[in-house]
TrEMBL record:
Entry-linked InterPro entries: LRR_dom_sf, LRRC14/PRAME
GO CC aspect terms: cytoplasm
Signal peptide interval: none
Organism superkingdom: Eukaryota
Keywords: Cytoplasm, Leucine-rich repeat, Repeat
Subcellular localization(s) per the UniProt record: Cytoplasm
Protein name stated in the entry: LRC14 protein
PANTHER family: LEUCINE-RICH REPEAT-CONTAINING PROTEIN 14, SIMILAR TO PREFERENTIALLY EXPRESSED ANTIGEN IN MELANOMA-LIKE 3
Cytoplasm among keywords: yes
Coiled-coil regions listed in the entry: none
């Protein structure tokens, strides 16, 4: 029944080769939070992987904080 989750400065760094498995695991777990309304991923290194990370969400978020995240055009297309 989690409504809000803050993961600022998380250790997700898509520049590391081994991160893909961890990113898929995190995405699957986020997808299980079917009542999540607010998500803060500020200062995370998720460039180009926003669709992979948030694509499993079951309901739309009311608030998504991505402060200091370097987003690529594909991330904005997904949003």
């Amino acid at each position: 029944h989690l409504l809000s989750l803050k993961l600022p400065y998380s250790n997700v760094d898509v520049r590391r080769p081994a991160t893909d498995v961890g990113l898929r695991c995190l995405a699957a777990q986020l997808g299980r939070l079917n009542q999540l309304k607010e998500l803060n991923l500020g200062s995370s290194r998720i460039s180009g992987k926003l669709r992979q990370l948030l694509g499993d969400l079951q309901t739309p978020l009311e608030s998504l904080e991505l402060a200091f995240c370097y987003l690529l055009p594909g991330d904005f297309t997904f949003l």
